[in-house]
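Hi support team,

I submitted a single chain yesterday and got back a structure, but I'm not sure I'm reading the token output correctly. Could someone confirm the output below corresponds to the sequence I sent? I've pasted both exactly as they appear in my results page.

Thanks,
R.
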Amino acid sequence: MAGAVEAQLAELGLKLPDVVPPLASYQPAVRSGVYVYTSGQLPMVDGKLAVTGKVGAEVTPDEAKDLARTCALNALAAVKSVAGDLDRIARVVKVVGFVASASDFTGQPAVINGASELLGQVLGERGVHARSAVGVAVLPLDAPVEVEIQVELTEA
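Hi R., thanks for writing in. Yes, this is the structure output for that exact sequence:
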């Protein structure tokens, strides 16, 4: 049964996807006490990347911002896989975003806003978080963006 967070996603025209299977030897998310840490989430949709390449070259900043939003949605799915219910999120503590960037691209924060804005739209004040947005040379599968989140859960 979907809770309030998933109902909010539905109001935005979004559906929580299935958890993206790991590409290597790791778990999509792990829980330690009241915290859930996700692995880096790529902008996978139905098992594949819709877009590859570097932001500022093959991928526009606006496309990358949308991809960061997809990464955040995948991160929420990973959180649910270990928390059981997204309504247990007390707050998003930290977001880390990686942007595969052309050598002259410096708009990483605006790209990762796609993830931050989605978390705010879905979770309200609970979605306000600390954040890093880092430019990198390349990401797995030549993905333009990767996002990981850390959340605090309410007591069960």
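A quick pointer for reading it: Helices lie at 4-11, 61-83, 108-123. Let us know if anything else looks off.

Best,
Support desk
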